[in-house]
Amino acid sequence: MRICVVALGKIGLPLAVQFAAKGHHVVGADVDERVVRLVGEGTVPFPGEAGLDVRLKEAVSAGLLRATTDTAAAVAEAEAVVVVVPLFVDAAGEPDFGWMDEATCAVAAGLRPGTLVSYETTLPVGTTRGRWAPLLEQGSGLTAGRDFALVFSPERVLTGRVFADLRRYPKLLGGVDAESARRGAEFYRAVLDFDDRDDLPRPNGVWDLGSAEAAELAKLAETTYRDVNIGLANQFARYADTVGVDVTRVVEACNTQPYSHIHQPGVAVGGHCIPVYPRMYLWNDPAATVVRAAREANEAMPGYAVDLLEREFGPLTGAGVLVLGAAYRGGVKETAFSGVFPVVAALRARGAQPYVSDPLYTAAELSALGLPPHGGQPVSAAVVQADHADYRVLSAADLPGVRVLVDGRRVTDPDRWPGVRRLVIGG
After folding, report:
1. Exposure pattern of 63-80 as b/e (b: 16+ CB <10 Å)?
2. What pLDDT is attached to residue 91?
């Protein structure tokens, strides 16, 4: 097959490489000339994706993958087009369709009869049929479902382990009509491999959910569930702090029963997915009080962590406080919706002098993010914001002068902090 992948980011590029590894000819389209140049050279434009460097070089060397900034031309050559352009949501929960509208218009300009178009970017329910289909039709003069196939098939992977997740989880999809769904299922069976799993209600593979709307809702539902679950765990943790109970022991005990799946509490919920997609769901369903309450509970956790610090430390005015971890999650060089930003803001609001360090980021990179890098300035307190593996062996000797440590991820070893008051959320 000839395939076009639109947007060569942290999901799109591994997808393009995966398709090429199955023997298909892939053209990756991206508006960033630097990304296109690097991919053309077989060089990964971003770090941290397991196996991508080797697989990318193999695909480019074999002549199975190339990149271009001309989306319309790439689409004109393709039998299947996969769109993975970011969709952003503002603080009020309003989706910004700008980039995706532009990409869709570019796809439409090159669209030919018989092509399959699949959107993998997470979307509000109804977007594929109600927004993309009309834009594609207007720009191409073709009709969705009759002249070209149109499906929604959400990505369900985590950066850093995309290739493993592509095999592990069923590929969900839904079409604007039955024939589109059939074409979409045929395509994904040809480009993906699936692990055998005996824990699923039906065989692992491509699952047609019956409509584009059902597939859109499935992605919003699975990510919103996680946000609500974490919100509940955070509520339990805050109550546990008031009664002197270790919430992790409670959660561990509860989860021995097969109907309990309580997640872990923590200082923040970050990343491209969990803080964002509940807002998309609320855009569709503004009466969803449970979803809204969980989002508010999770957004309050960075401030709560600083509250814990202040209660133990005393007034923070003038105190140097080190925030450990800029990344939203351990081992991943990404700061999307990271808790570091509200933690730093909360410290400043209390008069503290915050500094930030992260083993994945240089001082210059932190400064570029608007974060004050730690350059050896004296600090008397610290907050663990990211669960980097390095922090498991961090000790009081590494941070002389620190009197109070708030470990927002329970990643530090308490035995390594003699003489320091170490606090955790919920315990």
Report:
1. ebbbbbeebbbbbeebbb
2. 72
